[in-house]
Amino acid sequence: MWLYCHFPQLLLDNRVRLQPDTNTLPLALYQLQGSQSVIVQCNALAQESGVQPHIQTVMAISLCEQLQLIEYVPEREQQVLQQLATRLYQWAAKLILYSPKGIAIELNSLSQLYGGLNATLETLSREVRVLPLTVQFAVASNPLAAKLLAEYEGSASLSPEDSSARLKLLPISAAGLSTKVQKHCQAAGFRQLGELMQLPGSEVGRQLGLDTLLHLEQLQGRKQQSYDFFMPPESFQQSLDLVTEIPYWQGLLFPLKRLFGELEDFLYQRQKVIQQVDIELLHRNAPPSVISVSLAGPGWRGQNFLSLLQLKMESTPLPEPVIEIKLQASELLNSEQHTSHFFGAQQYRHETLSLIGRLQAKLGNPAVFSPAMNDDPRPGNNEFPRPAGEKPPALSSALKRPLWLLRPAELTSIDLWQLRHGPERKVCGWWDAGEVERDYWIAQDKHRRLGWLYYESGQWYLQGWFS
Amino acid sequence: MKKQFAELHSLSHYSFLRSAASPEALLNRADELGYAAIAITDECSVAGIVKAYQASKERRIKLIVGSEFRVTDVGTFVLLAPTREAYAQLCKKITLFRSRSEKGHYEANVDDFFDGLSQCFLLWQPDFEQAQLMAIGEKLKSVWRQRFWLLYERHYQAEDELTFQAVTELQQALKVTVTCAGGACMTTTEQQPLYDILNAIQQGGSLVHQPGLASNNAEHHLRSLSELQQCYPQKWLSESLVIAKQCQFCLSELRYEYPAELVPEGMSASEHLKQLTEQGAHWRYPEGVPASIKALYLKELRLIKEQSYEPFFLTIHDLVRFAREQGILFQGRGSAANSVVCYCLGITAVNPTQIQVLFERFISKERNEPPDIDVDFEHERREEIIQYIYRKYGRQRAALAATVITYRFKSAFRDVGKALGFSEQQLQYYRSNLDTRDKEQSWQQQLAQQHPEVANSLRGRHLLHFTGQLMGTPRHLSQHVGGFVIAADELSRLVPLENASMADRTVIQWDKTDLESLGLLKVDVLALGMLTALRKMLALINSRYKQQLTMATIPQEDSRVYQQLQTADSMGIFQIESRAQMNMLPRLKPKTFYDLVIQIAIVRPGPIQGDMVHPFLRRRAGLEAVDYPSNEVKSVLERTLGVPIFQEQVIKLAMVAAGFSGGEADQLRRAMASWGQNGHLTRFEDKLINGMLERGYKQEFAERLFRQICGFGQYGFPESHSASFANLAYVSAWFKTYHPAAFYVGLLNSLPMGFYSASQLVQDAQRHGVTFLPADINVSNWDYYWLPKQSTGSEETVRMGLRQIQGLSETRVKQALSQRPQTGFTSMHELRQTGLRDSDINALARADALQSIAGHRHQAHWQSLSMSDQQMPLFANIKDRPARQLPAPDEPDNIKADYESTGLTLGRHPLALLRNHPELKNCVMASDLITCRSGQVLTLAGLVTCRQRPGTGSGVTFLTLEDESGNSNVVVWAHTARQFRQCFLTSNLLWVKGIVEIHDGVVHVIAGRLKDLSGLLSFSRLESRRFH
Question: Are A76 and A13 in contact (CB under 8 A)?
Fold first, then answer.
């Protein structure tokens, strides 16, 4: 016997779970299908305005002007499903993932443990329902049949007895057949799965192909299937699109607490510990803020990481509102054996990161960075703080630029200088607030030092020194 | 002041995405700055040169023609054309470079510059990274000698000094002269942001994330002479003048040489045209040519001769002669087309005595512009005409005119947005609720209201501002719908050719207005679906009744035809089948051909916006007096009861009432055509109003006329076109009145065309007494056909064609039909043997077209599966096995399957099935609406077949609901649409409660409440047209 749990709007529900206040707005996930953007999941408020899955996004906006739209990313839903499976793994051994929306659980082997089939079902469904997710259950003698019933029928009775009768009543469109076979069946007047099941196998094979025959036999339990059972993953990764952009740390606390709670559950279930968590905050325009929180020694309590992060918050202002949070922990250690096994480069890296982490916690993020340059034509704007430790990108051209840049540039008198080369005219930056309008010169002072000067609004400035 | 500089290297926005300046603006600005000359040297193109030439006529500055080429690792070459021959060489080179690449690109190598350019000047801006620089320079010097200069440009960059040194050294080594240029891509520094945005668009990046895409400074603008003097040595500046002085070529030297082969030896073109016209006159008037006609054509021939336009008329005559020989229907239109000469030459079927057009104005010395003749051909056979042109003149001599595709709101908003770092999704979100047709609120205002955060941010303001700036600037060249330019010899000596996106098509680098400006002739070869349909209708009648009916011999001014039109029974009739036209028919009540000409022109945005419709209708109904302020005005407006309806009338009014000269009136016409895109029209306001006041017209009359002209704008419809369209409208209406079966068969066999779907046409046909028999593989052909009376007992019976079935291959089905035995196919196996594939057979089964072989559609489909390709090897020895008996489909099943496979049903309408449903209780049927009392509250229900929001209306949407009795018109005001937004937008089966309004036989239901009943249907194909 198999229990199948179908989560029709898993990604949306998960988001609402992590950020409950978003449910006060009409909310929908959309996906690009070919050249069209289509709604794939939506909450109750959106549905009240007539928004439904499968309609075009443009139509959805017309129906509901306040609709909040978020891109649907299948991989992300798959991640949520993985986490869900990891959680259920505590209660059941044989799980099959049907990405991205369903999990099948084998029941017979659990029957003894929980005291009968009904008790097993009760335990499992209770556990699934601990999380506020929309779910449709069904029970059948094989996972495929359970899947079709769950997807079609929703929360009908969990009694396994009449499952085969209900299976026969499934419309052709819900029978799990390929689109082509569905079309053939409909064109020949078949309406329900039962009508196909009545046909002799040889006729099904001849008319509708061997795949269809196999499918029907599997549904009826006549053909054994081999299954890929679920194994819990080796790393933790969870991300959350924020429905409304959050400009302050305070507003991030709740979702972060939830995410750290998930991390703690994950580690506890796996009996693992970690030393470092990476938190990546995505912004609309600015590059992401990456904050790593390292404990002095390995641990698993979410609260410990969160406390350390809160310490950092004070010194790390957000450059822009946050639109998405990612939490990642990749190096899982066994809880019994830790710290003493690190050697060499790995250890050095850890020490560097840990040092950077502590420096950042103390001084704030903007104070600790690796220098890097981009191709912004404005001197001063072309340097930007790259997250500490990352490789800088290659630069396009090697222009004559001073090594030592003064910021801000210093006011100087032209009498002290003799102009040598120039001018190089820089009139740019209109697209942001940093508009400049300067003539740059290379000039020599009486000590024969070369300086980089510019003239702007009637004044001369020293921008930097050539070595 | 002494002119001290000539700009020899400048790019206009026809070097797409490389320049922010229009050619006109560059020229005007250079003149303001006191330059002696400016060369517009677009990259491998002369697409902008005619615009600059037009502007130069009003300026003192000299225009030099040239082009820029970028050669990898060698540098930039600027070619200038000092003479006509040099210009021809330049055009040929551009053609060569363009022919090597796909549309929009070119390929030039350094070796290409060593021959074929013996008359051109070359300016070389070397790439100093190149190791072989000296060798290349020496070779160039040896070939080009005194026509060769080094080009130095300084834009205040870090590497200026190095470049300067390198140029000086190269100059000394090669012993060539240096000149300098600005490399201008902007007129003033203010264009820098737009220039940066264009660059970011071209690179596909955003300035916010890749600031390196922006320019360092704005030095690529046209600089003042004092700035230039600070920048360059005087000697180099002076050299630019030396070069400019030698450039003597002007575009006015271009003479179009007409194809000569159309004139028989020993005759002049003029004699030949006269001869053909005389022959044609006898053919048109077999009873004897009336003296008035003869006088007219002689006058026209004289005008044609004065302008030497004979070859143009001969060329078109040759095309229509070919079409007539091939049995391809055609019709000429345009002012010159509706002349007596064209009538005699058979170019048009409109008898010019029936309408009044200003032929003189369209061929006059003053205008110095080519006459306008468009010829429409059957859409299915236009390609034959195009191939004839290529065959006759060769690809060297014939090419299509270009159309310049410009930025519209949507594309500009997206590209500017991306360049400013907005994501595609954000932009789509911002754009989704904007209505660019809203007249009360500009899109900028709407955006600011809906998304205040955008308007309040710097980046958002940039988005608003630069989207506006980018709109209207060119994006790329595309091919004109059918305008051919044909030359006497090589066309590429006149204008460069480049590849179009369509295989085997080349376009020239000039568009319609450029050709007009230069007085070059273009032959418009257009495609028209109605002509295809008419040819098929004529063929049906002629073969059934053994007649020789042609468009010209169809009985004219038949009162039954007009009576039918007066009741708005016009579905399928050319030009007057739209809903708006149908609403006008019972009010205008056309009784004559000229009424149709007015009917076609009046239901246009121009007359509607100019508020000309109601005055005209009131006057026609005798409710308002017709008066004229003067006899001159009367002469212009008399035939339209004092209300200007046609474009020609507006022009003529400007001439007679405001004293415009012919040339000025023509400028007014051009300004009208581009009204809305620029403010040119307002320039004429004072002149027009003052002109009329001076001539004693009242202020109020003058202002009203100007308002009407503005309203006309680009939508003004010329009488000459309307007349040709009216001819086709009359002919199609005649068929509908007298031979409905032939009419619908002709239309159905020419789809896709027109306004209505096959389903709507078939229902209309059934209401006109035509019986349709279902498609069947054993009796149907690919096309619909009209059954002989003997076989059915009825005159109006039609067999559905297999073309109606979706998913069939035309080639394979036609091949199968050619093998159909006398007694028909008897088995699936036999059918398969003809070469039909699984997909074809399944489609036939779904459409119930295998009845005669395999029974009802379920049975046939199931049977077809067992024979499918993939199963063949296993069951190769089995023919059709006795199949399982499957239950037959019921009526809803059949209707659903009919719609899915053919888009229509010959069974009952879905609404007929639902008529007794409680939800439809008390609903009035469409055909009964006319019997209701105007103002009565009622309910009706139907399938939504059309949602239309006209550009002229304010927030009103017209819905067409279809039921088993016909169509009804529902008007939904904006507030009702908002209130019932969901069902208004999504419903397929709509229930409406509203008030019926009946005026002059026009019936509307003003919706008050809407309800979505789509749940009652499970028909997937009944989709309506959305706003369009």
Answer: no
The residue among A195, A194, A199, A192 whose CA lies nearest residue A213 is A199
- Residues in chain B closer than 8 A to A428 (CB atoms): 192, 196, 211, 214-217
Token readout for B756 is 């209505």
Number of Cβ pairs < 8 A linking chain A and chain B? 125
Question: Beta strands B957-963 and B62-71: pairing type?
Answer: unpaired
Q: Which residue has the tokens 């399944």?
A: B842
CA distance A188 to chain B (A): 4
Looking at beta carbons, which residues of chain B come within 8 Å of A187? 842, 845-846, 857-858, 861, 897
State whether B210 and A375 contact (CB < 8 Å).
Answer: yes
- pTM beyond 0.90: the answer is no
Mutation target for B interface from A186, A431, A452: give the one with most B CBs within 10 A.
A431
User: Does B196 contact A431 at a Cβ distance shorter than 8 Å?
Assistant: yes
Q: Report how far residue A355's alpha carbon sits from residue A375's, in angstroms, rounded to the nearest whole number.
A: 30
| Closest CA–CA distance from residue B977 to any residue of chain A (Å) | 11
Q: Which residue has the tokens 């299509």?
A: B400
- Residue B437: give the domain boundaries: 405-477
Residue B116, domain member (yes or no): no
Nearest residue of chain A to residue B874 (CA atoms): A206
Same domain, B831 and B882: yes
- What distance in Å separates the CA atoms of residue A439 and residue A419, rounded to the nearest whole number? 12
Are B409 and B443 contacting, i.e. CB atoms less than 8 angstroms apart? yes
DSSP string computed for B135-176: HHHHHHHHHHGGGEEEEE---S-TTHHHHHHHHHHHHHHHT-
Q: Do B216 and A399 touch (CB under 8 A)?
A: no
Indicate which CATH number applies to the domain containing B993: 2.40.50.140
**A187 and A297 belong to one structural domain:** no
- A206 and A276 assigned to the same domain: no
**CB-closest option in B192, B458, B862 to A207:** B862
Q: How distant, in Å, are the alpha carbons of A34, B313, B722 from that of B347?
A: 47, 9, 16
Measured at the CA of B201, the angle between CA B195 and CA B203, to 5 degrees, comes to 105
Instruction: Quick: pLDDT tens for B653-705.
Output: 888 888 887 667 777 777 776 655 555 667 778 888 888 898 888 888 888 87
- Cβ contact (<8 Å) for A423 and B156? yes
B976-1003 confidence digits (pLDDT tens): 888 888 888 888 899 999 999 998 888 9
| Both structure tokens of B846 | 């779904």
Check if the interface score ipTM surpasses 0.90. no
- Examine the domain organization and report whether B897 and B921 are in the same domain: no
